[in-house]
Amino acid sequence: MRLAGKSIIVTGAGRGIGAGIARRFGAEGALVACADLDGDAAGRTARAIADAGGQAVASRVDVGAADDARRLTAATVAAFGGVDAIVNVAGIGGLAAFLDLDEADLTRVMRVNVMGTFLCAQAAAREMAARGGGRIVNVSSISGQRAGWGRTAYGTSKAAVIQLTRQMAMELAPHNITANAIAPGPVDTALTRADHTPETRAAYNAMVPLGRYGTIDEMADAAVFLAGDDSTYITGHVLNVDGGYMAAGIRFDDL
Ligand SMILES: NC(=O)c1ccc[n+]([C@@H]2O[C@H](COP(=O)([O-])OP(=O)(O)OC[C@H]3O[C@@H](n4cnc5c(N)ncnc54)[C@H](O)[C@@H]3O)[C@@H](O)[C@H]2O)c1
């Protein structure tokens, strides 16, 4: 088991990528603190981990609320004796043309994706620093690196997550804390089922060299690598888990 005995917080653990990462961590021997705005859903993930023989606790957390972020770290310390890693997965999306984007919608997305990542990582990092080290993994997106229609709020927030990650990597290195980002390409989850029209799906499948959406399991593979002991000299890195999307230019499928 690659994460045996490690105490790891996963935000957004109620469903989708976060739930998949939390369950994989449990199977890899981690002590998993499942956090989500939907406390019942976080509880279901924790129960699934326990049913599979792992250890987990769950809490209802709004990552954008400073008190909740602090409470999450404190509860994890109370349950498992410390925090070895945090994976910030909680995020929200949405689409709006730049010319139509409402400032309240921009604020809402920035609050969860940027402020939430900042607050939860800062609270966990204070604990990690006091105990001699740890790992931070932030989930960004290909949308934080390339523009897409309607992605002003989401893409800008995910670009900020990348810069937050680099900032953390530099400032937390003296505390033996690494910070890296995972930038998924399109992944088949409830979020993309709501946001991606059939046309969007077809466009992504054509633009991704591997020709398909990624799976939640493939995101969990990257999270285990960056949260565990196989990545000790990697920090400040953005790991694109995107089927080659960020690498590709024009393609001729008939050649
Ligand atoms: N699905 C994709 O294709 C894709 C691609 C790139 C990046 N991502 C990112 O991966 C992450 C997970 O995506 P997903 O598709 O699994 O999404 P999802 O909508 O299925 O799950 C997101 C989870 O975050 C929780 N959440 C939302 N706001 C929260 C808050 N304020 N506090 C705590 N929890 C909150 C939700 O309750 C939900 O359980 C997001 O950050 C998303 O931006 C997803």
How would you describe this protein?
With 255 residues, the protein is of the alpha/beta class. The chain contains eight helices and seven strands. The longest helix has 29 residues, at 103-131. Helix 4 (103-131) packs parallel to helix 5. The chain has a seven-stranded parallel beta sheet, sandwiched between helices. Helices cover 46% and strands 15% of the residues. The mean pLDDT is 97. The chain has a single domain (7-245), classed as NAD(P)-binding Rossmann-like Domain (Rossmann fold). The chain binds nicotinamide-adenine-dinucleotide. Nicotinamide-adenine-dinucleotide (NAD) binds next to helix 1, helix 4 and helix 6. Nicotinamide-adenine-dinucleotide binds at residues 11-12, 14-18, 36-38, 41, 61-64, 89-93, 112, 116, 139, 141, 184, 186-187, 189-192.
Please describe the structure with a list of short key phrases separated by commas or semicolons.
255 residues; alpha/beta; Rossmann fold; seven-stranded parallel beta sheet; 8 helices; 7 strands; 46% helix; 15% strand; globular; binds nicotinamide-adenine-dinucleotide
